[in-house]
Amino acid sequence: MQVVVAGDGESGNPFTPKGYLIRYWKKQISNDLPKPWFLLNKASPLNAAQYATYTKLVADQNALTTHLHTFCSSANLMCAPDLSPSLEKHSGEIHFATYSDKNFTNYGTNEPGIGVNTFKNYSDGENIPVNSFRRYGRGSPRDNKFDNYAPDGNVIDQSFNSYSTSTAGGSGQFTNYAANTNVPNLHFTSYSDQGTGGEQKFTTYSQQGNAGDQYFKSYGKNGNGANGEFVSYGNDTNVLGSTFTNYGQTANGGDQKFTSYGFNGNVPENHFTNYGVGGNGPSETFTSYRDQSNVGDDTFTTYVKDANGGEANFTNYGQSFNEGTDVFTTYGKGGNDPHINFKTYGVNNTFKDYVKDTATFSNYHNKTSQVLASLTEVNGGKKVNNRWVEPGKFFREKMLKSGTIMPMPDIKDKMPKRSFLPRVIAAKLPFSTSKIAELKKIFHAGDDSQVEKMIGDALSECERAPSAGETKQCVNSAEDMIDFATSVLGRNVVVRTTENTKGSNGNIMIGSVKGINGGKVTKSVSCHQTLYPYLLYYCHSVPKVRVYEADILDPNSKAKINHGVAICHVDTSSWGPTHGAFVALGSGPGKIEVIVAGKRENSGDSVNPFTPKAYSIRYWNKRISNKLPKPWFLLNKASPLNAAQFAKYSKLATGDQKSLSNEIQSFCSSANLLCFPDISTSLDKHGQDTQFSSYMSKNFTNYGNKLPGGFDSFKIYAENDNLPVNSFRQYSRGGAGHDDRFSTYAPNGNVIDQSFNTYGTGLAAFGVGQFKIYGPNVNVPNLRFTTYSTEGVGRKQSFMSYSKDTNSGSQSFTSYARNANGAANDFTSYANNSNVIGSTFTNYGESENGGGNMFNSYGSNANVPKNTFKSYGLSGNAPFETFINYRDKSNVGEDNFVSYVDDPNSGRAHFQNYGQSFGEGSDGFSKYGSKITDAQTIGFETYGVNSTFNEYGKSIPTFTDYKNKTINQISSFLMGKNNKWMVEPGKFFREKMLKIGTIMPMPDIQDKMPKRSFLPRVIASKLPFSTSKIGNLKKIFHAGNDSQMGKMIDDALIECERSPSAGETKRCVSSIEDMIDFSTSVLGQNIIVRTTENIKGSKGDILIGSVKGINGGKVTKSVSCHQSLFPYLVYYCHSVPKVRVYEADILDPSSKAKINHGVAICHVDTSTWGVNHGAFMALGSGPGKIEVCHWIFENDMTWTIAD
C-alpha cells in the first residue's frame, strides 16, 4: 500500500505548486480513490513566493539564467555548477577533502619538490559535478591520489587536460574513482604526455557506472617508462564507452595492465586507436578483460603497429556467453618481434592485416556467423541466450501465478533526484532540438558537455515518431501527465507503481496476483523517467496490454517484501526481431506475449549513503534492535543537505561561526531552515501609482516621503513566506492624498515581522490606508505600528480581517494617530479566531481631534486575547469609539483600559455585546473617563463579567444588562462543569471515550509550525544552544534585537532549560540521532515510534472505530516529542510516569468510512497537575481525581516499547 506521511498530504500551503497540483488532481480525476502521493510528492518544492519569483524570471530567460543556481537549488533540479576560479599554484603537500566543483587550472604547474596532493571524498554525491584539471601538475614531479573521487554522482563531467604532461617521476592514483555514478563523462587529454617514469593507477575506476563515456586521448604519448594499471576498471557497468586514442604512441618501455577491465559489464564499447604505435618494448597485459560481459564491442585499430619488441597478452579475454564483436585492424603490423598471446579468448573476432606468425592462440574460439545466429535461439530447450538482458527483465505471463519462483531484475531507480517544474514555468522554457542553444544557455551547459548531450538525447527521444499503434508524449509537469493520461483513458483513472525495491537482483516468489480490469486486455498509459535537468517523463500508450498487481514474497521465509506492478504486452508483432525480450525468452515478434517488470523510483533506504538522511537511516538500523518498518514520517525530517553541502556546512560550523553566518541564507535554503531574510536596500521615492504584487522582504525607508498623490497597492505581498521582514520606515511621511492598500498582505506566513515606523507621519493629509485580509493564517505575527499617522489630517485607516486565524504573536500600536485631526479607524474582524494574540494601543489617538474609531467583531472567537489601551484617546476632542461584538465568544481575554478617554470633550464610547463569552477574563478600567464633560456618553450593553472600574466617571455612563461579579463568584463560576476555558472541544477527553462507536469532537490537530528539517547532528552539536549564548545564536541567524526571531529563540531555549516537572524526564533534541538516543535511554532499543496519520477529522465530530491498547492497554513507559519554534527543527521530548497509549481508527460519523488513524495518550496520574490546568477546566474535576487523554497532533510523535 502507499503510506501517506503525516505532513505530506493535503495540509500544505494551497498556493504552492504542490497545492495547485492537488487541486488539479481533484478537478480532473472523477473518483475519490486515495491520491497517489508517490506522484504528487514529485511536484515542485518551491514555496509560493519562490513560485512567483521564478515565474516572473522565466519570462526573461536571461534573468533566469543569472539566477540558475538558486533556481536549481530551490526547485530541486539537476544543473551544472559553475566552476570556481582556479586555485593558486602550490609547492607543498595539499589535501583536498570533501571538495567539489573546483578549477585546477595551472595548479602546481612546474612546481618543484615531491609534493603529494590527496583528493579524498571529492565531489561526493554531487549532481553534475564539473571539475577541470587543466595543465594540472604539468612539469611537476608530484604524487596525486584520487580516493573516493566523485562517488555516487550523477552526470559527472571531469576534464583532465594536459595533466602531468612533461613530468618526471611521480604517480597518479585513481582509487574508487567515480564509483556508482550515472553517466560519467571523463576526458583525459594529453594525460602524462612526454612523461618520464610516471606511474598511473586506475583502481575500481567507474565501477558500477551507468552509461557514459571515457576518453583517453594522447594518453602517455611519447612517455618514457610510464606504467599504467587499469584494475577493476568499469566493472559492473552498463554501456560504458572508453576510447584510447594515440595511447602510449611512441612510448618507450611502458607497461600497461588491464586487469578485470570491464568485468561483468553490459555492452561495454572500447576503442584502442593508434595504441602503442611506434612504441619501444611496450608490454600490454589484458587479464580477465571484459570477462562475463554482455555484447561489448572492442576495436583495436593500428594496435602496436610498428612497435619494437612489444608483448601483448590476452588472458581470459572476453569470456562470456555473449561476446560481441572485436575488430583487430592492422594489429601488430610492422612490429619487430612482437609477442601476442591469446589464451582462452572468446568468439566473433575479426583480424585484418594481423601478423599471424608471432601470435599464440590457446583455446581460442572463433565461431562462424551461423553458429552465432544459433546462439539467439533456445539451446535445446535448456540454455537461453541472455544477450543484453539481465535475468527477470522480461518474462512470460504464465509466470504470474502464486508460488512461482523467478528472478527479479534491478528495479532500483538510478536517476538523480529531481522534481517537476510548475507547469506555468515549464511551458515558458524552450523544449525542442531546434532550441538546444537556448537551453544550453539557460542551464549553463558547455559545448561538448555531458549536460548538452543529456538534453539532446532526451529531446531527440521526445521528438521521435511514435511506433506502430503507440500514442506518446513527453511530460514535464504532473499536470501534463494527468492531461495525457485522461486524454487516453478518461477521468476515472488510477496510477500505480511498484512499492519498493526489495527483491531486486535476486530470486523472488510470487504471492497473490490481481489482474486489473479482471485480467482482460485494457488500455493503459506507462510513464518512464528521462534524464533531464528537471523531472521529465516519457509517457506512452500501446495497444493490447494486460496489467497485473502481485505480492512479492521472500522465497525462503515466504514473508511479503514488496508489491509489484507488471504489464503484459499481448501483441508483439510490431517489435523488432532483435528486441531484448526475444533474445531473453526465445521466439520472435508476434509469437509470444511479453511481461515487463515495473521499476520502482528511489525512496526509502536507497539514498546516497553519505547524506545526513542516509546516516540517520544507518543510525536507526544500528540503535533499534527490531526489524519493524522504519518510521519514514520521522526519517524524512532529516536534513536535505546533499553530501557535498553536508561537508561544506560541517566545516563552516566547526570553524569560525562567522563563516557560517556569512552564508546563512544559502545554508537556510539548502538545509530547509527558518531564517530571517536580509532586507534589500530601500526602494526609491515615487510620486505615482505603484503596484507591489507578489513582493516580499522589502525595505520601504523614506519611500514616497512628502510626495503628493499616488496610489500604492500591496497585493498578495509576502505570501506564504517564512519570516518575511518588511520595514515601512518613514513611509509616505508628509505625503498628501496618498492611498495605500494592503490586500491579502503576508497571508499564510510564519513569524511575520513588520515594522510601520513613522508611517504617514508628519501632517500626512487625507489619503486612505486599507489593511485588508492582512496577515491571515499566520503564525506568530509581530507587527509594530509606531507613530503611525501621527499628526495626520483626515487620514482613514481600515483594518479588515486583520491577523485573522493567527496563532500567538503581538501587535503594537504606539503613538498611533497621536495628535491626528479627524482620523477615522475601523478595526473589523480584527484578530478573529486567533490564539493568544496580544495588542497594545499606547498613546493611541492621544490629543486626537474628532476621530471615530470602530472596533467591530474585534477578537471574536479568540483564545486568550490580551489588549491594552493605554492613554487611549487622552485629551481627545469629540472622539467617537464603538466596540461592537468586541471580544465576543472569546476565552479568558484580558483588556486593560488605562487613562482611556481621560479628559475628553464630548466623547462617546459604546460597548455593545462586549466580552460576551462563557469565560471572560479580567477587564480593568483605570481612570476611564474620570474627567468627562456632561456631553460624554459611555454605554455598556450586555457587557460581560469580571470587570474592575477604577476612578471611572460614573456620573453619566449607561449600563444595560451589565453583569459585574465578585472575585469569589468568578472563581466558582470558572470551576463550573461545562466551562471550556482556554480549551477547544476535544483537546482533552476521558479514557472511556476511546471505544468503538463513540462520537466525539476532535480539536484542530494540524501542525501550524513552519516547515523545517533537523540539522545533521555533527552541525547541530557545534552551534550554541543555551540562553547564556543567545547573543551568538542571534548573530549566526541574523536575528535583530527585539525581533520575533530573537524572541522565538529565547522562548524555545528557556523552555528547554526549564527544570523537569515532578516525575518527568526531558530533553530538547535537534537531530534524529539525539531523539533516538533519548528514546532508547528511557525505553531500551526494542522500540517503535507512532504519530497520527493525517489531519482529517480536525475541528469536527469523529466516530471512533477499532481501538488497540499498546502493551495490552496496560500502563506503559512512553516518550512523547513535541515541536518547538526554532530556526531548525527542535523537539521537546519527555517521558512522564503512568500513561496508557492507544491507536484508534477514526471514522467519518456520517459515512462510517475510515478517514484517519490516530494515536492517543491517557495520563493515569494527574495528581501533580495544576488546579487550573485546561484539562480540568474542560472536563471538570481536579488534580488526581480523573485520568486525562489527548491526541498526538500532526508531526508530533510518541515512542513506546515495540508491542
Automatic annotation (TrEMBL):
It is found in: Secreted, Cell wall; Secreted, Extracellular space, Apoplast. Its main location: secreted. Residues 394-621, 988-1202 form the BURP domain. The keyword Amino-acid biosynthesis does not apply. It comes from the Eukaryota. SMART domains: BURP. The lineage of its organism: Eukaryota, Viridiplantae, Streptophyta, Embryophyta, Tracheophyta. This is BURP domain-containing protein. One of its GO terms (cellular component) is apoplast.
